[in-house]
Amino acid sequence: MTLTEILAAYAAFLSTVVFFWNVLKATPKLKVDLMHGLEEKGDTHNFGVYITVRNPSSQTVHLAGLDLLYQYEEPSILRRLRHIYRYKNWPSSIGWIHCSLSLYDIDDKCPLSLNAGQSHMVFVPENVIENMLAKGIGSKLRAKAQDQLWRSKYSKPLKYHITCN
Known about the structure:
- There is one protein chain.
- By secondary structure, the protein is α+β, with helices and mostly antiparallel strands.
- The chain has helices at about 5-25, 75-85, 125-135; strands spanning about 30-40, 45-55, 60-70, 95-100, 110-115, 120-125, 140-145, 150-155, 160.
- A hairpin with a 2-residue loop joins strand 1 (about 30-40) and strand 2 (about 45-55).
- The radius of gyration is 21 Å and the shape is extended.
- The model has no long low-confidence stretch (mean pLDDT about 90).
């Protein structure tokens, strides 16, 4: 192998790595988190959950809506496998009910555009969460952010356990 062939192989490898790096960096991304929170309005304190949507990418993300999810069943492995076979995607939301925040008169301020490095927070009060969890099983919540191209990003499940009256 000559020096020219070694340099050509190195250049091909390097250009492939740079291509995949650029594709990865050019793709808009969202991160969705749920966290316990407290909101103060005047003299009253409201407990609840904050839905946080962050844009860590270098592209602007156009957010279409936010949903809160609660679990209504624990799907079996067979049902998950059927979903994978039928729809050819990972069954991340089987057994979860999607609730738009507008059903509970919560303004999520969507649609909106998140520039690179920006975040957006929405507070969901405790009475709304308890109303949702009363309809389902367990005490787990998830959040979903959807951009205007219908790409959805889900948060990890949060076990809601704060009850203050």
